[in-house]
Amino acid sequence: KNEVEQSPQNLTAQEGEFITINCSYSVGISALHWLQQHPGGGIVSLFMLSSGKKKHGRLIATINIQEKHSSLHITASHPRDSAVYICAVRFLNGNQFYFGTGTSLTVIP
Amino acid sequence: DAMVIQNPRYQVTQFGKPVTLSCSQTLNHNVMYWYQQKSSQAPKLLFHYYDKDFNNEADTPDNFQSRRPNTSFCFLDIRSPGLGDAAMYLCATRPEPLSSYEQYFGPGTRLTVT
């Protein structure tokens, strides 16, 4: 069964804290995306991963294919990072995107 | 520069009154997707086009239709909107269906049904 789970569902952090959001999936994937959605806004693609690690500024995404797990890290968090972060995967057995339920992040000044 | 454009950004329609949402892309991508996202839920795929080939998801209501007159434009038609159709509608594109290609999202259209 194709499933995507994210944790935590809600996260509140103080400005400057290191943040980790986790994503686990059930079966083999061909690609995993981390997406950011601001309140009332559209979706921005942050990373697309199939292996290893990617870094963009304060954002780091890692994936462990054997463990079927990915993490999104935000270093030196800032209030403008407040958003919903969504993990989406494309499973090997199909071509559709499967979305996690999202992690709502609030960074307090 | 905007690559996937959705118009309008906000749309209000009356119960039962047909409404059309628009998506255009400057990327020349073959694949275009329409998603529906209700409050606090993950986006749900409604249908997608691969070039002119239309692919409907099994649980997409008949009330939802789509047109793709050319590569750049794709429309979502809701024939008789109900209160339950109020949502954010997201358009996305990809060069090809292959998994190695990234998907690009538009800003979304928020639909309100009164």
Describe this structure in words.
The complex is a heterodimer of chains A (109) and B (114). Chain A is mainly β. In chain A, 0% of the residues lie in helices and 61% in strands. Chain A has strands at residues 4-7, 10-14, 19-25, 29-37, 43-49, 52-56, 59-64, 69-74, 83-91, 97-99, 103-108. In chain A, the strands form two sheets. In chain A, strands 2, 4, 5, 9, 10 and 11 form a six-stranded mixed β-sheet that branches. In chain A, strand 4 (29-37) and strand 5 (43-49) form a beta hairpin. The radius of gyration of chain A is 13 Å and the shape is globular. The mean pLDDT of chain A is 90. Chain B is mostly beta strands. Helices cover 0% and strands 51% of the residues of chain B. Chain B has no helices and eleven strands. In chain B, the strands form two sheets. In chain B, strands 2, 4, 5, 6, 9, 10 and 11 form a seven-stranded mixed β-sheet that branches. A four-stranded antiparallel β-sheet of chain B has the order 1-3-8-7, with no helix packed on it. Chain B is globular and about 40 Å long. Chains A and B meet through strand 4 and strand 5 of A and strand 9 and strand 10 of B.
